[in-house]
Each structure stands twice: as structure tokens, then as C-alpha cells.
Design goal:
This protein has 252 residues and is α/β, with parallel strands linked by helices. It has a single domain, classed as TIM Barrel (Alpha-Beta Barrel). Helix content is 43%, strand content 15%. Helix 5 crosses helix 7. The protein is globular and about 45 Å long. The termini are close together. The structure holds phosphoenolpyruvate. The site of phosphoenolpyruvate has 13 residues, from strand 8.
């Protein structure tokens, strides 16, 4: 059975004092033993804080994006090795906000995924359809193209080292959640695509759901066969909500 992963995506929120307090509350509640894998993906300036407060706890940390380039004249970008300098374990790649607001296409997301893997990071590769794509019946086509672009660049051994996050764009930050059945259908389809590469590896790949996951819907979503945890935005900013989602990951 796959171990669940609950990962927070803090986006561009908080400040030094508030983020430190949030980490403190999480560590105080979770300590060294957790019912699932846990991570926080934070703005790059707070990676040092994570290293300071989360080392030797059950909570891993990571970035929200990385450059497709190794190093050089790329003002404002953060490289994979800068993330690993602060002992990041994960990095979110291809979040819909980066696709929509920063023009990231499938090819770039695939390059970033490879860059993360080569640096030893675990990429959390985000895929998801817009509302109009869903209404046009194109969901599987869209998320399939997004995932296949990444798979096309991976070495066989990489497959066991990625996390996939299905995040319907219309559910992110809107309070609208995919029903467990709707999400499960897409997750099963994504796992089939992964299985076409390597059936054994596909069975072990963690596929997260993201999009308004909250304490009151997390349990039923995570009870679905192919939903292996959550990528949590808004609810990761309040320790009580994030902790409740973590608690909801157990008993499945
Ligand atoms: C996200 O940004 O990845 C996300 C899932 O956000 P929210 O939980 O706020 O919908």
C-alpha cells in the first residue's frame, strides 16, 4: 500500500514571524512520528527557516518552482542546487498558477522536472484542466498531454522518484472541489498512463489531489483508491487545518 503524502503549498504568503510560528506549531503537534509523509513547499526565502526548524522532524520541505537552467544569467530564478543547498526534498513543478501567469508550457515543465530529478529533488508534477476544458470533455486529453510531456523526458529509473498532483484549475483556491468520484476517475487515468511506461513503478507512484482540499473533505477524497494524499494551498496556512488534513490521511 502506498504511504500517503500531505504537502502544503504556501504560495506567496506569510512573513518571517508568521511562517516561523506556523512551522513551530506543526512541529509541536507532529514531532518525529507522523501518520503520513508531510511536506511544506515554501517561498524560497524561507527555505533556511525550514532547514533550521524542521531538520530531524517528520516534516520535509521544498520549493514551489525551480529554473530549467543549471546556473547563469537568469535574474530572479532559483536553481535546483540552490534548493538542495537548504536540504529541500521536494519541489512543485508546473503549478497551474505558473502555467497561467508565467507562460510555462508542457515542454518547460518537463525540462524543470528533469532538472529537479538530476539534483536529487523529488518533483511534484502538477497537471489539471480548466473549467472550459472539463466542460468540453477534454479533461483526460489535457492532463494526459501534460503528464506525457514529462514522461517523454524521463529515464526509466526516474519514474519511481516523481510525485504527480492532479489539480483541476477550477478547484484551486475557489472552494469548489472535485467530488471524490470525479477526482478518482482522473487519478486512475493518470495511473494508467504511468503504467504504460512501467506497471510496477506506476503502482507505487504517489498521485496527490489538490484543489480546495480542506479538513471537511480530505477524508473522503483520500479514501479513494488512487488518491494518495493532497497538495494543499489555503488550508496549509493554518496549522489546525493542515493538521486536520494530516489526521484525515490515516485509516485508509
Ligand atoms: C494549490 O495551490 O496547489 C491548491 C491546491 O490550492 P487550494 O488548496 O487553496 O485550492
Amino acid at each position: 500500500m502506498r504511504r500517503k503524502l500531505v504537502a502544503g503549498n504556501w504560495k506567496m504568503n506569510g512573513n518571517l514571524a508568521a511562517n516561523s510560528a506556523l512551522l513551530y506549531e506543526l512541529v509541536a503537534a507532529i514531532g518525529h512520528a507522523a501518520p503520513c509523509d508531510i511536506a511544506v513547499c515554501v517561498p524560497a526565502p524561507y527555505l533556511a527557516l525550514c532547514q533550521q526548524q524542521l531538520t530531524n522532524t517528520a516534516i520535509a520541505w521544498g520549493g514551489q518552482d525551480l529554473s530549467a537552467h543549471e546556473a547563469g544569467a537568469y535574474t530572479g530564478e532559483v536553481s535546483a542546487t540552490m534548493l538542495t543547498d537548504f536540504r529541500s526534498h521536494y519541489v512543485v513543478v508546473g503549478h497551474s498558477e505558473r502555467r497561467a501567469m508565467h507562460g510555462e508550457n508542457n515542454a518547460l515543465v518537463a525540462q524543470k522536472t528533469v532538472r529537479a530529478l538530476r539534483a536529487g529533488l523529488v518533483p511534484i508534477v502538477c497537471v489539471g484542466e480548466t473549467l472550459s476544458e472539463r466542460e468540453a470533455g477534454r479533461t483526460m486529453q489535457v492532463v494526459g498531454d501534460q503528464l506525457n510531456a514529462v514522461l517523454a523526458l524521463l529515464e526509466p529509473a526516474d519514474l519511481t522518484r516523481i510525485v504527480v498532483a492532479y489539480e483541476p484549475v477550477w478547484a484551486i483556491g475557489t472552494g469548489k472541489t472535485a467530488t471524490p468520484d470525479m477526482a478518482q476517475e482522473v487519478h486512475a487515468g493518470l495511473r494508467q498512463l504511468l503504467a504504460a511506461q512501467d506497471a510496477l513503478a506506476a503502482a507505487g507512484i504517489c498521485i496527490l489531489y489538490g484543489g480546495s482540499m480542506k479538513p471537511d473533505n480530505a477524508r473522503e477524497l483520500m479514501a479513494m483508491a488512487d488518491i494518495d494524499g493532497g497538495l494543499i494551498g489555503g488550508a496549509a496556512l493554518k496549522s489546525a487545518d493542515f493538521l486536520a488534513i494530516i489526521a484525515a490521511s490515516s485509516n485508509h
